[in-house]
Each structure stands twice: as structure tokens, then as C-alpha cells.
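EI: anyone free to look at a 273-residue chain?
SC: sure, send it
EI:
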Amino acid sequence: MLLFALFLGSGVCQAAGSGADKPAHIVYKVDGQEVTKAVYDSVRKDDIFKSYTIEPAEAVKKYGTYAAGGVRVIVTKGVYSQSGHRVFSYDGEGRVVPDSSYIDPFDNGHFAGIKPYVLKSSDTVDAGRAYVVNCYKYNGWENEPGDFNVVEMTCGGDTVLTLDNSDAWVPFMRELGEDGQCPYYVLPLGRGATALFFKGYTYESPSPLTVVVLKDGRASLVLNKRMVVNEIDDEHKMFFMQEDFTEYVSDDGPATMPARHFLWIKDGMLYFN
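SC: here you go
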């Protein structure tokens, strides 16, 4: 990737650090296309963007998009060969071993009268064995934001995992169910494992993106991080995320550039970068 900062002043183009007079304007370019300084800085310092390039809008149809500062950044195939960090591993017996650094605790309060929970949905997920995934809302919280607060997973009649999130989760608005939405996104990983993604309700700040891996009759929480999910690349099974909302001060660009992250499958595991 070619990064280039062009200093303009008195009608003369001069290289940075040449000892010339203080420039009146600076043009920042990435692969020959002018971008904002915020985009230039983020591309320069973020290794994952070494596999990115600025392309015409029609390339969106081939690769998919990721917006940054009003400039379309197109995913090239090289990004999928980038190294990342595994959010979990397998032990010698093939059991899932989460990396606790990717699991933040739920910021739950103490509420009275929320039981018995109200069942909102119940589905069976085939992950080598049949798992029943029940989604509940707190009792008396019908007018509170979000669709469900509790997820209970059973296998063979035994409860294998229960998650409680007072901030609540919401369905993925995708063609995954008869009504065009599904409480979670199902992603087969290989090696007999399947990941379920739960998207948090959006308040003034992002709510957690929660990921559970089902394997061999067990259910393991492997990721719980506050993230804004910008896009899902169905072809490559990749999530595009950022840590916070982008705030714009004008049409010229953003006031803030939140850190961007990517989550994808490699060798039967989930990688985060």
C-alpha cells in the first residue's frame, strides 16, 4: 500500500521535512486517492490495513465494503491470510478452551421481580448434537429496550450454559428465519464446532457482541466485547466491527475514528484482529 502526504504551499509541491516554509495545506493520499488525515493516520498505523486498498465503488460488488471517514475501503482477499489472535483453542481432547482476555463480564444490575422469565423464542441448533436455545425476557420488562435478556442452552435435557445480560440482545435483521430475523447468527466452524453470535442492544454506547461455541454437548462462552457490528461478509464468514460509534462533525469527515476489528474463521477457530 502506498501512503503519501503532499504539502502544498505557495503553489509549489515540496516534500515533508525539506525545511521549506510552513505549508498552507496538506493533501493525504492512500494508493493515489485523496483521503482525510484521520483515514490516512489510521491506515498508516493499523497493520490490518496493509491488505486494504481504496477502490471505485463498483468493486463493492466483488469484495464488500467497510466505511471509514466517508471513504470506501474495500476488503481485498489478502486480509484473510492476515494473522490474528485466536479467541479460543482446543485442548488435547478437542474441548474448547476460551481465552479469558476476550470475555468481559456483563454489566448487570440487581433487579427484583424479574423471574419467572418470559420465553421469547425456542429453537434447536444442530451442532453435531441437538442443542435447544431458549431466549427469555425479564418478567415485567416488556417495555424495556431489547428483545431478550437471558439465553439458556440445553443438550440432551441438561442445561449446559446460561447467559444473563440486563442490557439485552436483539435479533439479527437477516433472512435467517420465517420472519426475516433470527435471535442469533449461526456460523459452522468445522471440527464439529458451531458458533452462535448474539448482538447487543445499542444504547448511547455499544452493547456486547457475545459469541458461544457449541461442541460435543458443551457450550462455551468465547467472546463478550462491546462492539458495533458494521457488516457481515457472508462469503468469507467475516465480521466487521468497531469499538465505538463514529461521530461526525461535518460532511468532510469524522471527529473520531474508533478502533476497528475483524473476526473470522481459520482452521476451525475464530480469529480476532
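EI: The chain is about 5% helix and 50% strand.
SC: 👍
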